[in-house]
């Protein structure tokens, strides 16, 4: 009772008592001996459940104590994470939940500092210029890479990018606004000092994430000077990676669950018990011994990332719009419905898997069924709206490549087209019960406007060539797309799924 009335505050001083009273596992290493080695942009739930967790594993084994993580924020909203972590010595709780309800609660100690760049951009650049920093990693979401939706290239006209470019042309680091500007400023400072440049390691859900980061950082550097661009191309490495762990947004309920064990954590993390990280071994100035913590360090990441993006991520889109329209809020409730399980397996088997590369030693049938089980993990409490967010970034990167590859080789696209149609119906902004849908997307107004014309022009939504390219010109795709959208209007999601499955499994 006393614990409930006066819970302990999570911090270094209280760690031993927290371990004794809550049962949470705590760092076995002396955090005062950790020195910085990594700067990470995008310190959210996923990074803390994934990359920071792997580093904590190494540290608990007495290794990688010179690879401590310094978080860095550039967005105004990042100050919340800075303050939450600073108030508890940058410690936080990671609770993993297995489908059988088994919990693992541990306190992660691999993050040692956090710099909020807008308050002092020069301090942020100085941190990046520190020779101790050998890796700069990113989880900034698909929308963070400054992609021009019309061309797919780096958007030089973004006002914040343009301001950073002009500032760096004159050597001014005050007021830098973007991670492109800050990271490039750090590299400029290292170049001037003769310091080895750091590796830029993207960990976002983008096919060829390292290659994309490399292309866009080179584009930004070349816009400052061709000489800088050439130097970066020669000296800086950008490894590709594939990352996988379902990590919902932290809720007040998650905070309450930690408090019930006897201590207060301002921003804990909850995730599933499954985790995977496949990483290309391409680093400029060394790296932690990630393979000793369970990371698959390989020469070629592409086969693994295609498997994950086209099976897991695209299937998330396959369940979320249909599920939202049917009135489901929780992912495990969607997966309790046989309609959805059958639909996702059919999509994975018939359309996604034929586009994958050879994966020696990987049992794809087992992987597909494992995904269905992971999606149905009720303990994780993943939400359908989370999966529906930022669709205009996700669908073009995760699903449309499956469509285009199958169209090119005469494969099936009916189920992929149905997923796009479910997004079009969802983007109309009202579900099948008449409830409003809050569309969370950087192009929310645009996609909603496009979808508002669905009933008068069945192809209105996919006429947006900036998002869909020339798919509207494909009779095979548009026929399947139109049939599903019409069915969603007339019969609803579950009857539509039944009809789809009946057609493709005959």
From TrEMBL:
Enzyme Commission no: 1.1.1.17
Domain Mannitol dehydrogenase C-terminal: 300-488
Keyword Ion transport attached: no
One biological process term in Gene Ontology: mannitol metabolic process
Pfam families (UniProt xref): Mannitol_dh, Mannitol_dh_C
Molecular function terms from GO: mannitol-1-phosphate 5-dehydrogenase activity
Family: Belongs to the mannitol dehydrogenase family.
Keyword terms of this UniProt record: NAD, Oxidoreductase
Identification of the protein by name: Mannitol-1-phosphate 5-dehydrogenase
Coiled-coil ranges from the UniProt annotation: none
């Amino acid at each position: 009772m006393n614990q409930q009335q006066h819970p302990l505050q999570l911090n270094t001083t209280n760690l031993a008592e927290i371990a004794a009273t809550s049962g949470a596992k705590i760092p076995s290493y002396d955090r005062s001996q950790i020195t910085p080695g990594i700067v990470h942009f995008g310190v959210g739930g996923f990074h803390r459940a994934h990359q920071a967790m792997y580093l904590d594993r190494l540290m608990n084994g007495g290794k990688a104590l010179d690879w401590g993580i310094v978080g860095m924020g550039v967005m105004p909203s990042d100050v919340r994470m800075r303050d939450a972590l600073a108030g508890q010595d940058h410690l936080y709780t990671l609770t993993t939940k297995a489908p059988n309800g088994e919990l693992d609660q541990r306190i992660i100690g691999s993050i040692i500092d956090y710099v909020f760049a807008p308050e002092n951009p020069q301090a942020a650049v100085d941190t990046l210029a520190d020779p101790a920093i050998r890796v700069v990693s990113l989880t900034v979401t698909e929308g963070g890479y400054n992609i021009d939706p019309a061309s797919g290239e780096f958007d030089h006209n973004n006002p914040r990018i343009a301001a950073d470019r002009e500032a760096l042309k004159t050597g001014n680091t005050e007021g830098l606004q973007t991670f492109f500007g800050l990271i490039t400023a750090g590299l400029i400072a290292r170049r001037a000092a003769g310091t080895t440049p750091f590796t830029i390691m993207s960990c976002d859900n983008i096919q060829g994430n390292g290659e994309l980061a490399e292309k866009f950082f080179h584009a930004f550097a070349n816009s400052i000077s061709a000489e800088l661009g050439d130097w970066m191309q020669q000296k800086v490495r950008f490894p590709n990676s594939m990352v996988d762990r379902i990590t919902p947004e932290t809720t007040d309920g998650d905070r309450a669950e930690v408090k019930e064990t006897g201590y207060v954590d301002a921003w804990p993390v909850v995730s599933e018990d499954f985790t995977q990280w496949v990483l290309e071994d391409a680093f400029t100035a060394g790296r932690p011994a990630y393979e000793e913590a369970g990371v698959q360090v390989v020469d070629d990441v592409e086969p693994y990332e295609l498997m994950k993006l086209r099976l897991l991520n695209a299937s998330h889109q396959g369940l979320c719009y249909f599920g939202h329209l049917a009135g489901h809020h929780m992912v495990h409730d969607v997966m309790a419905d046989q309609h959805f399980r059958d639909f996702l397996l059919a999509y994975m088997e018939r359309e996604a898997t034929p586009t994958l590369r050879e994966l020696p030693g990987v049992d794809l049938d087992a992987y597909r069924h494992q995904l269905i089980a992971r999606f149905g993990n009720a303990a994780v409490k993943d939400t359908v709206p989370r999966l529906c967010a930022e669709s205009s970034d996700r669908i073009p990167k995760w699903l449309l490549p499956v469509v285009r590859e199958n169209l090119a080789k005469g494969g099936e696209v009916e189920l992929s087209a149905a997923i796009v149609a479910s997004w079009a119906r969802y983007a109309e902004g009202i579900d099948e019960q008449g409830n409003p849908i809050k569309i969370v997307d950087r192009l929310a107004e645009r996609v909603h406007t496009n979808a508002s014309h669905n009933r008068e022009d069945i192809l209105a939504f996919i006429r947006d060539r900036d998002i869909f390219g020339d798919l509207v010109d494909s009779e095979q795709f548009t026929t399947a797309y139109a049939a599903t959208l019409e069915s969603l209007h007339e019969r609803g999601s579950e009857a539509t799924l039944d009809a789809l499955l009946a057609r493709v499994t005959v």
